[in-house]
Structure formats: structure tokens, C-alpha cells
Amino acid sequence: MRVYVHGAGRQGTDAWPSIPTQGSQFACLDFTGPMDANVASLSALTPRDAVVLAHSAGAVPVFLALQAHQIAPCALVLLEPGLYDVARGDAAIERHIDAMTRARTLSRRGDLFGYWSIVRPLMFGGPADRSRWDAEREVAARFEAKQPPWGFGVTSSAINGVPTLVITGGWNAEYEAIAGVLVGEGARHVQLSGTNHRPQDHSGFADTVDAFLSGL
Question: How far apart, in whole angstroms, are the C-alpha atoms of residue 86 and residue 67?
Fold first, then answer.
């Protein structure tokens, strides 16, 4: 059984459009609500000795479930995991957290456009523009409502004893720093370039995962 855990964007099967549904379970988590609820949902979904594949922010509840011994996978595949807690102190990680903290301070004061002025170029590319604000306000509000993937006490040692593959796109220093920490805990690391934050859309993704699992 393979369990697929989406990030903070698309949910369920929509987040994994190239994955066959047979023999698969697809998480549907809510990153605007309590993280404990996501951990509980994931734990209920994941049978013992499953292969868990987690993208971006989805790696956070996976690690929390591991740390609480609520899941016992036979292997992990982490795609650009948003495990910022494990790489605190890295320059790229700290820059990102600082920028997002400043942005969320503005939004908490009621300045959603100020928030978007920081977040849009950081996460979506291109500057925030007042002339597009009516069209982008809802997107900004939805993104702002999601919890940032840090501050949960995630530890890299959660993967000790669990064969782990980390796949990154080689385009973002933050995810490469996180991958480096996990390699230090025994994970394997593969770069699949060309699809940026969604290596699951890379033509070599399935073969990369199958090769890893066949070697266990």
C-alpha cells in the first residue's frame, strides 16, 4: 500500500494526477486547521508497513505522526519536504521564515495587500500589483489562512530506522538545505530538475521511486 500526502495546495488525487488509484490511499488534510487533526487523519489512513509519500508541507504531519509512533511505514519518499524546523540556522531557511513572519504580521494587522506584497514575489513570482488585487485577493486570503510549516518541533531523527528517499528539484536552496540535513540522518537524495516544486510531475519520478523501493 502507498499513502500519498499532499502539500498545502491541491488535495487528494488532484495533487497526484499521474498516480494510479489502485493500491493507493490519498490523504485529504486541512492546513488551515489544527495540525493535530491532520496527524490523526493521517494515522487513521496509514496501515502498518505502508510506503508513505509526502510532498512539501505534507511532510510535517508525517514526521509528527512518526515521532508520536502513530504510524510505522516501511519506507518514506519525501518530495521537497517543507521540514523547516530541521534546518533552522541555515541562511536560506532563516531568510524565508523572516520574510513570511513579516508578511503574517501585516496580515494580522488587517493589511492583506501588504502581506501579498511580500508573499507573491516570494512564493508565486512577480510583484503584487494594485491593478490585479481584485482578482488576486481571494488567492492571497486562502494562502494566508494556511499554517506555515515550522514551529511544530519536527526533528530530523524521526526517520532513523525508516528507509527514506528525498527528492528535490534543484531549484530552491531551502529544500536543498532540508535534504542535506535528512541525508545526515541516513536518507538518500535525488534531484529531478525541470518541474521545480513538484517533482512528482517529472517524467522520471515513478522510475526513481520504484528503483529506491526495489533496493530495500
Answer: 13
